[in-house]
Every structure is written in structure tokens, then in C-alpha cells.
Amino acid sequence: MSTAMAPEAFCSPTRVLVVGGGGRENALAWALARSTGVEDVWVAPGNGGTKDLPGCRQLPVDESNHRGLLEACQRLAINLVVVGPEAPLAAGLADLLRAANLLVFGPGASGAQLEASKQWAKTLMQEAGIPTAGFWAACTEAEALAVLEQQAKPLVVKADGLAAGKGVTVAETMDEARSAITDIFSGRFGLRDGPALVLEERSHGPEVSVFALTDGERFVMLPPAQDHKRIGEGDTGPNTGGMGAYAPAPLLGVDDLETIRRSVLQPTLTALRERGIDYRGVIYVGLMLTAKGPSVIEYNCRFGDPECQTLMPLLGPELAKVLMACAAGRLDQAPDLSIASGCSACVVAAAEGYPGTIRRGDDIQSTLCQGPDLQLFHAGTQRRDDSDICVSSGGRVLAVVAQAEDFDTAFERAYAGLSQVHFQGMTYRRDIGHQVRNR
Q1: Residue 7's pLDDT band (cuts 50, 70, 90)
Q2: SS3 for 386?
Q3: Alpha carbon distance 354, 376 (integer Å)
Q4: Is-contact 201 156, C-beta < 8 A?
């Protein structure tokens, strides 16, 4: 399955391209530029903060322009491509680049079905014996409503395709479930292959995110993380892409992680290989810790956002070599990835109106002085007329991340850093990490 390559072909990536323009890609580029042996990192298309990342350059090619990205890789002699967002992976960007003999960290379109189709992923879990809630798939609104009425209780309603993290409703009432079904079949989420959905039994318990870097056969696990989806303090209000995160999540101990390794990650890779899928990239597993044990809520085929911003400062200088080894199918020859001790805390600042209609174009002022334990990662920002002025251009505008030996200190540093950043209408939660903070 693995391509035979000499160790030197992947052990020292020197010219890296990160595809994407969000906060996740800002953090990935920052971490890769700090990795051993890396000389240059390009980010395509990047955002308003890309130019401020040491060792990074902005490449004005959109992530949907696959042919343009391929030509840029060949022109710049890129020897590792790291694809950040799910949409280009689902659309086959990694397949195109691999066909041109480029090393890519990110699955092909067949592997990206883990995220791109809830029904496909749930079927894989069911057939592989991976713990997950019971489900029903529906291709029409009438079919979905009939399942709901037959079950006679609120169900979780999930759009089957990519919906930018906003296609899931954990319904509290039957009317809320009916409304969510109608929304999906109204075309609100613009699903590429037409509307379809998965209805799922409700599970109960805290949620946690687990990430594994894999070459298709072997994998290495990262510290678990928890994010905060709701816009409002006290975990209230509508879901967002994520308003903050922290790692390592203390909900999972060594034994718990070993259970997840054996019962979730290893069976997932085995099931993918049985389907002829050589999955090279990150597997992001969203888990609910139920009374019966860990249960998979969903897979993602990329790093989470803002979990990625939280995790990258904890990862050692071997990161680029490990990602390249995964891309080459040779993780067994990669160096061990060192993980810093202590904690990492991330707080997201969003635009006024998020997650609904948002303000755009507001100047961002910052006096924050970044250091070894404090980072500012841009997300929805851009430069005003190619000047040095950054303006808000998206829902989640930026994130401040801090590290310390304990969560109280880490979050104090993060919020102190955020107090030095301002733009009109800036919105953020003041209770991120409430599960692990004592003050």
C-alpha cells in the first residue's frame, strides 16, 4: 500500500505549502515554520495575518483552484502539501496533487467521505463495530418526517454533506426536529449532491475531540481537546464553528485513550483499508463520553478549528517530519513527536452578529506582544488595499492562545492577551474553559 521511498525523501521537508485561509491554517503554518529543517512555508490563500507569521509567505491562489495550486507547487518545488479545510479534500485536491507525485498530508476524496457523508461514515462505523448512536438515513423530507414520527421522540438531525459545521441540530422537541429537517431539504446548506440527512439517537455526556496523524496503517495520537460550540456563555445560544478550546482535556486519561485507540481508531483505519482507501492525513474523532463508554459522534478529515490553534503550540519541532512521513506512508520511520507539558488555552474573537449576519471591514488594532507562551492567530481577516492594516472579513476573526503549567494561568494569559486586541463589535465568551478553571 505504501509508496517505497528513501527516508531522505520525507524526513526533511524544506518547502511546505499549507492550503487554506482560516485560523486553523494560520496555526498550522506557524507550527510548520518552527519545525526542524523547514526553510519556507507558503499559505494559499492565507489571510490578513499570514504576512506576520515568521518564515511564512502568502500565495494568492484560492483553495478551490486545484490546477492553480498544482502549478504553484511545481513552480516553487514544494515537497510537502498540508491541506487544511475539508472542502478541497472532499473535492479531490489531494488526489490531483498525488497524481503529480507530490507528497500530501490529507486524504483523497474517497477517504474524505468520513466527513463529507454522515451516512457513509455511520455505515462504516456500524459495519466495523465502532461504538456510535443508532441512526436512520433519509433522502426525502417525507421519509425523514416519517422516521421522526415513528420514533415519537426528538432526534439529532444531521445534514449528510459538508455544511461548514452548521448542519447539525440536537433537537430538544419534536417541533425543533421537524424544523431542522425542513431546513435541510429547503436547500439552506447548499449541499453539493442534493439534500439528504441522517437522523440519530440522542446520546448524553461530555464531548471531547481526539486527533490521530496517520499514514494509512499506523497512527500517532495527539492530546485530546475540548471546544465550545455555543455562542453564549454557559454554553447557550446557537452553535458556531467554535468559540474557544483547551488541551489536554483531562476527561481522558491514559487508559481511556488506549480504549479509543483499540475500539475506534484502529478499527476505523482497518475499515478504510478494507474499502481500498489509503488514508493519509488526520482523523479527527468527535466523541461523547456516555455512561456506556466513548461513542463516536462524527469524524472529520481535517484538524478542528479552534482545536488546531490550541494544539499546535504543544507540538514539538518534529511536526513537519511526522506529517511528511504520514504523507509518504512511512510513519514507522518518523521521529517521535514531542508534546510539551502543561496546558494550552484558546479564546476566539468573533464579529458582531456571528453566527448570523456579521459586520465586516472593521479595522483591527492590537498591542499584543507575542512570545513563546502567547500567540495571536488570524482567521477571518484581510489586508486593507495591500496595506499593513488588517480588517475583519469573516465570522470568527482571530484567536488568542496561551500556554502555562495549569489551566487557570493559561486562560488568564489568553484573556489578558485578548484585552490588547480590539475591533468594532468584537464578541467573545468570557467562560471558555469553565470545566477546568478554578478561578
Answers
A1: very low
A2: coil
A3: 20
A4: yes
Which residues are within 8 A (CB) of 66 and not within 5 positions of it... i.e. 6 or more apart? 88, 91, 92, 93, 96
User: Using alpha carbons only, what angle is made at residue 322 by residues 317 and 324, rounded to the nearest 5 degrees?
Assistant: 115
**Inter-axis angle of helices 174-185 and 141-151, nearest 10:** 170
Q: Which residues contact 372 (CB under 8 A, 6 or more apart)?
A: none
Q: Which residues have CB under 8 Å from 17's CB, separation 6+? A: 41, 42, 43, 44, 59, 69, 72, 73, 76, 78, 80, 81, 82
Grid coordinates representing 12 are 526533511
What confidence tens digit (pLDDT) does each residue in 44-69 have? 999 999 999 999 999 999 999 999 99
pLDDT in tens, 185-218: 887 655 445 568 889 888 899 999 999 999 999 9
* Range 343-422: architecture per CATH: Alpha-Beta Complex (3.90)
| Nearest of 318, 263, 325 to residue 289 by alpha carbon | 263
State the CATH architecture for 204-333.
2-Layer Sandwich (3.30)
Ranges of each domain in the chain: 12-106, 134-200, 204-333, 343-422
CB contact at 8 A, 325 and 10: yes
Q: Quick one: which of 215, 242, 267, 225 has its CA closest to 350? A: 242
Residue 117 corresponds to which cell in the numbers above? 457523508
Query: 194 or 254: whose pLDDT is higher?
Result: 254
Record the pTM: 0.92
Do residues 170 and 196 make contact, with C-beta atoms less than 8 angstroms apart?
no
